[in-house]
């Protein structure tokens, strides 16, 4: 099967349909695992912040006076770094999973097709996986 780039028709790869299907499913699984890993990191951060807030609220007013608490703008930057940016990463990964699902569905619909057109990002990942010789089973 000939795999062509959707933008540049000169970029193409020759690969068997079964190997392509395995590779696409492998890439999808990796992206889903990455999404779960990022979600777990976000949850750990949120639990840690909730525990810190609960501890602070349990202090007496006199102890609160002497407890060093970071300014709100520091907390906002920390929130952006630990929650907002990872959520953007998750959105990008979900978009990649959607593209892979679409490609897998198209490949399953017509397995006898001679060529398939994929996005540049998917082709780049396929090339990287083939160069590194990663096992796709």
Describe the structure.
With 137 residues, the chain is mainly alpha-helical. 72% of the residues lie in helices and 8% in strands. The protein is built from 4 helices and 3 strands, in the order ββαααβα. It has helices spanning 17-58, 61-66, 72-109, 120-132; strands at residues 2-5, 12-14, 115-118. It has a 3-stranded mixed β-sheet with strand order 2-1-3. α1 (17-58) packs antiparallel against α3 (72-109). The longest helix is centred in the N-terminal third of the chain and has 42 residues, at 17-58. Residues 21-48 form a coiled coil. Keywords: Coiled coil.
Name a few traits of the molecule.
137 residues, mainly alpha, three-stranded mixed β-sheet, 4 helices, rod-shaped, coiled coil
Strand tally, please?
Answer: 3
How many DSSP H or I helices? 4
Sequence stretches where pLDDT stays below 50 over 5 or more residues: none
Mean pLDDT: 88
How would a crystallographer describe the biggest sheet?
A: 3 strands, mixed
Instruction: Output the structural class.
Output: mainly alpha
Question: Helix and strand string, N-terminal first?
Answer: EEHHHEH
Question: If you compute it from the alpha carbons, what radius of gyration comes out, rounded to the nearest whole angstrom?
Answer: 23 Å
Beta-strand residue fraction = 5-15%
């Amino acid at each position: 099967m000939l795999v062509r780039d959707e933008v540049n028709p000169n970029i193409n790869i020759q690969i068997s349909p079964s190997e392509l299907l395995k590779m696409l499913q492998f890439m999808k699984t990796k992206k889903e695992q990455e999404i779960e890993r990022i979600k777990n990191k976000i949850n750990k951060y949120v639990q840690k912040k909730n525990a810190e807030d609960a501890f602070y609220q349990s202090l007496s007013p006199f102890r609160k006076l002497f407890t060093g608490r970071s300014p709100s703008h520091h907390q906002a930057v920390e929130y952006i770094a630990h929650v907002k940016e990872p959520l953007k990463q998750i959105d990008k990964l979900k978009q990649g999973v959607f593209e892979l699902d679409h490609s897998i569905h198209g490949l399953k619909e017509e397995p006898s097709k001679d060529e398939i057109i994929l996005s540049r990002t998917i082709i780049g990942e396929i090339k990287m996986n083939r160069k590194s010789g990663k096992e796709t089973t």
